[in-house]
Known about the structure:
The complex is a heterodimer. By secondary structure, chain A is of the alpha+beta class. Chain A has helices at about 20-35, 40-60, 110-120, and strands at about 10-15, 70-75, 80-85, 120-125, 130-135. Chain A has a five-stranded antiparallel beta sheet with strand order 1-2-3-5-4, with helices on one face. Chain A is globular. In chain A, about 30% of the residues are buried. In chain B, about 45% of the residues lie in helices and about 25% in strands. In chain B, the strands form two sheets. Chain B has a five-stranded mixed beta sheet. In chain B, strands 3-5 form a two-stranded parallel sheet.
Amino acid sequence: xxxxxxxxxxxxxxxxxxxxxxxxxxxxxxxxxxxxxxxxxxxxxxxxxxxxxxxxxxxxxxxxxxxxxxxxxxxxxxxxxxxxxxxxxxxxxxxxxxxxxxxxxxxxxxxxxxxxxxxxxxxxxxxxxxxxxxxxxxxxxxx
Amino acid sequence: xxxxxxxxxxxxxxxxxxxxxxxxxxxxxxxxxxxxxxxxxxxxxxxxxxxxxxxxxxxxxxxxxxxxxxxxxxxxxxxxxxxxxxxxxxxxxxxxxxxxxxxxxxxxxxxxxxxxx
Lengths: 143, 117
């Protein structure tokens, strides 16, 4: 990575409230837009941020006001990296039912993870599922 | 119909056409209200033909999708015909990724839906 592509780093600790993170997400998207990211790609990043942070609050921290969600990001013109960690008990993402199989279409759950996996280039889980690490790399055919 | 804050409903012959007030359907309270207003259309008002016009919708979360799935179940139980229309390419992709384009009947335009209802 050349000197002019040194990523901008942003960190924040969010409360476990499903109404308290949208301004932060909007700010990130606006910052990425100024770095040249297209609306089409930002739609997918918006989805990944929305689903990962809401999952951390709803399923990880179970909306416990004594717990928080920490978010770390690295922003650059061709790469967006983000880690979202909660203070819950963790989970095994491989045990989440496949929401796209016919028998699960009407069941709740699993769609957020499916959307994250679709829109981001790499998705990993760590700390027993308490953290999700996502990376979006712009290919030559995007943006 | 009164006190609707998340949807607008207009009646065209025997069909109820629903438009969404929010461009981004992500706020949990808004999703809760949206769900109740939709559920009332079938459970309280017993409407039998409904078109959900997504023309105004630019973004929706999986929580909103969950509410739409519950609405589809209630509509089916009430023998209400439900068609989704005017879905942008970005939103349609969300339905396609989650295979919900197989669960819902989707038409390009309101006119296409009215033609088959």
